[in-house]
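the two lines:
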Amino acid sequence: MDSFSAPHGTLSGPPGPDAPAGTTGPDGPATPLPAGTPAPDFSLHSTPDQLLSLRELRGRPVILAFYPADWSPVCGDQMALYQEILPEFRRYGATLVGISVDGVWCHLAFARDRKLQFPLLADFEPKGAVSRRYGAFQPGPGESARALFVIDSGGVIRWSYLSPVGVNPGADGILTALDALQSQEGTS
Amino acid sequence: MTAPGSAHLTVPVGERDHIQGPAGAPVTLVEYGDFECPYCGQAYPIVKALQERLGDRLRFVFRNFPLNNAHPHAEHAAEAAETAAAQDRYWEMHDRLYEHQRALDDAHLERYAADVGLDVERFNREMEAGAHRARVREDFLSGVRSGVNGTPTFFINGVRHDDSYAFEVLLAALERAAAGERHVPSGAAPERTAGPGAD
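prediction for all of em together
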């Protein structure tokens, strides 16, 4: 894989005709929903005949990893890294979900190729609708931003992070957020 | 939100580490690497050249970050290096593995063990028992906690190096650190030009 190319455009692309009035400004960078916001519910396809809803995951922490595209070098590397860290996420009882605007067949091929054992959801139709609601959409290239959310067992966002699109954000932020969540939920 | 450029080494260099160079060196370079990763293979002679250039001013530390999903032999290779460390042959094995990156199956690992002068029977016993698996995982998790996002990832005096690992770029960063300048990424987090993020 080529590590030298920047596979995606910039975060501040030209305003899309239907740029949402909410968290993604008309020409500014994506602004992910901040901590303390109830996580908007959604139902997206994880396989051609299966839908996954956020509310089904209530009662346990959820990690949402929005990313621009299957197959591009940085994204593939980020998802492969998360696959390695999956046992660690599970120690916190957390469920990891990847989301991009790629279609479900693309996701299936990508997951099989990279041996990913967590769901990849297709924010495909209407394109990017869930990404937009989370402030994790790039109108220019028409892709999800590289944004991370940690949601608590009650469905509230506890941590969010927007990475520069060409940089793999790693998992240290996620684990720190899960640590904080565990100590809060453990003491409340 | 913190910029990715501010990632720091969460587990300081200590006795458990594999270290080359003096403890009092003004600059410490920590690499999180995978023996089967081709980018780490590219970085291997670069680190050697940096050590040559900086001599006693540089302390070098290697920690394991095997990406087993992408590299089926990486875990065993890392364990083989740790097994060699138990017989005081760590760096011999480390170098041997990087110089033979395309042949890291178990049969070859055993051959390298013999080549570097290990007690092969003990090597095989420890490999079969997975005696050093926990150590490799500890390294991996310390990397994850420190913001390692791919291999190789370098830390210079405890701060993640978010730039290319080309010789000149690393040398300049090490010289800056040795001169006591803090490594502060300018402005927004830089995009990596030849970065480790893409393997």
